[in-house]
Amino acid sequence: MSDALLSLENIRTDIAQYHILKGVSFSVPRGQVTMLLGRNGVGKTTSLRTIMGLWQAKEGTLTFDGADITGAPISARARAGIGFVPEDMGIFGDLSVEENMVLAATNGMPDPARLEWLFSAFPALRTFWKSQAGALSGGQKQMLSIARAMIEDRKLYLIDEPTKGLAPAIISTMVGALRTLKQQGATVLMVEQNFSVAKALGDQAVVMDDGVVVWTGAMAELAESSALQERLMGLSMEAH
Amino acid sequence: MTIAPEHNPVFARLGWRDRLGQSAPYLLVPVLIAAGFAAIGAPSSWLTLTVSGLAMGMMIFIMASGLTLVFGLMDVINFGHGAFISLGAYMGVSVLFWLSGWTEAASLALNVGAIGLAILAAMLFAGAVSWAFERTIVRPVYGSHLKQILITVGALIVLEQLIHVIWGAEEIFLLRPESLRGAVTFFGAALEKYRILAVVIGLGIFIAMRLVLRHTKIGLIVRAGVQNGEMVEALGYRLRLVFVGVFIAGSALAGLGGVMWALYEQVITAGMGENMMILIFIVVIIGGLGSVEGAFIGALLVGLLQNYVAFLEPKLALVSNIALMTAILMWRPQGMMPVVKAK
Amino acid sequence: MLTRLISGDTPRSPVLAALLGAILVALMFAPFLFPGVRALDTAATICIFILLVASYDLLLGYTGIVSFAHTMFFGMGAYGVALASIHMGRSYEALITGTVLGAAAAALFALVIALFSLRVRAIFFAMITLAVASAMAVLVSQLFQITGGEDGLTYRIPRELTPAFRLGEIFDTRINGRILNYYLVFFSCLMLFLLLLRVVNSPFGRVLQAIRENEFRAQAIGYKVVLYRTTATCLSAAMAALAGSLYAIWLRYVGPDTTLSFEIMLDVLLMVVIGGMGTLYGAVLGSVIFVLAHNYLQNLMGAGAEMFQNIPILPDLINPDRWLLWLGVLFVLSVYFFPTGIVGRLRANR
Fold first, then answer.
1. Closest chain C residue to B141 measured between Cα atoms?
2. Quick check: C214 contacting B, CB < 8 Å?
3. For chain C, which terminal residue's Cβ has fewer other Cβ atoms within 10 angstroms, N or C?
4. Mind listing the domains of chain C with CATH numbers?
């Protein structure tokens, strides 16, 4: 696929003696939001971490923006333009919100206009700009983690469960911010358990089960067919 | 879409208990100084001992700071850290002997200049050796504490023995430079000049270190790396390079501490670093592994307590530090200011 | 029968089995095979170090914890016997009382240290034991009224265990109390070694190894990691104290240099690593090789230093006083290149 920004080919990742990814192949098209879906423990987070380099792939090829990054160090991948929002948010609790953001701006200080936009999306960040990040609430930490990834234009955003454990009101703030990001034409690969969020944001869907990809296609197609959802993810009606 | 009305974030106010808990370690130093006053009685002896304790604490802090940061950053425990103290001391003392014309002169400028050059040589030497040490000894054993401890203990022995080979097995005695000998009298208390200088240098280094850690980008990366190294890499920084830098800087500081300790004790042995490691470990444990502030407070407590107890009951001096460690670990099992890992 | 005696932990290598057999035979008949005071002394030292090193391996190899207080526990057993013999007079009761109290004190100390450190982080243990052991060494030298300070203590043990007690001759060897003493040491060490072998091959030992391999997983399965580690620590300390008691009975002398010094701690570390961590047979090989080398190799280095005395630096490097330098180098190289030690090598080459 020529318009693929990122592609995984037969990626295998082991954690200790366990085979977590057993040959994962999919690609992320430019300018689209790709949802990585599936039950718990099927390897979604491991896929993101392997793309970021936090786990090293044992086999297979990772291509990003035309370059082979399979063996590249973590920092090189970040510098190549991948922004990462980990499952545990990865907030530096002893640092202030400001310091968290400054650290994320790899090319010096954050751009003021960009910062203004992030403040309007996540007002709490302005309120607590000088406070210790560790004292933020769970939702605020998640906002900080996402804002940190968005402080610069990244070619690709890897976002792991941005709505996990959040109150509905905060989820809608989050969805709003991510939709703005999408409208700007960003490329996103997102793991999401909340199907309605996935439906609202996703263009493409990749469904995993037991360490392999079992379905790829348009998010709309998956959203329309409850039979497909049932078969692929064991989703029941109340999950909608 | 804007923020939902019912979501109105407030910063939870800390109760007085939490506030006291946070600042309690800072309060321990004045509390200990006051307790020392009560136990000793005589103000002049107390003042002498306090200055001496602070001087000792500052020197221990300088030696311990690198060790605690190296551990915090890469989870590497270096039992060979003491070797850099000894190496620094021997190099520094060699330079002082070489500059004997400067140290014997009754000129403060020349004396301090000689010490400055000795310190510079010691730091460069310890730093250079530590660079090779990191590459050959430490790098192959990342991730395994067991191997780290074994290998670095082995390397400590080898370096100590090499000091014997190069500088001889006998202890080396030295005299402080002319204008730093003797004491000044202050409110009836005799304060050794050199100890005052040691306090000044130690405080200067602590403040400089804090400024670097708080107000520079590299300091920011180090502080973030201590909490969550993986995320720092995922933001595009090469933590390994930062780590090597901190390792070398920390070892150079150990070398500096070695020179200062040599001038304090006026004798050096190859085993001095190994002996210092005992106090250094106590300091980094009670301070909280990875915490520079914790190590600073811990070092002051150890230095003060050691001096007070040595005055009151000489035989209990070293045991008193074990007692201090026990008491602090009973109060806070992770040490006074443990670094909160974000994982 | 034999397999049961060694708890099913077979050497799994013909060479290793042959070596172990040879060592066992040599030690068992040492008084008859190697006449002379020095040879018997070496044999007894080997027996005691096998026990000491094996007890350390229970901690280092099987539990994955580094301790620097093992010689402190060793010393507790030794000083226990010495002090009991001095205060209770020359008697078997004194030996037994000293041994029991020494082992109990060691286990109690180990328990306290373990509670402070293992609860938080296994790595604390290494640092805290280093601090405590050095404080103890200083204390022993300072409290010389009780401990004899740097000079140590000499005392009298029951006459049947001393050279003055004569029994007759077997195979041209004069049987005296010294030989009885040797067999007391030998059989005690053998029994305690077999007991350790039983411990590491019991379900308890297997849990320890599971924790060493993957602490979090063991915790997740439901093992109380701290409890297991603490128990192993106490057991290991008590065994070290017993070895110390035997050493005190054998030497009729205790002092900081023979029981407490950091140098002995390094020797023990080296013996474990060279022999092979995580296998008690490694302790046997490590101790034998090391004690022999310590007793005989230093002479060789002295001769070498004299031979090369005209070359710069080299005589300094092989001066017998630089013995530790080469130990350190050997130690570092073994951790890198032979992390499984001699036993691991032998088993791999099967």
1. C336
2. no
3. N
4. 12-348 (1.10.3470)
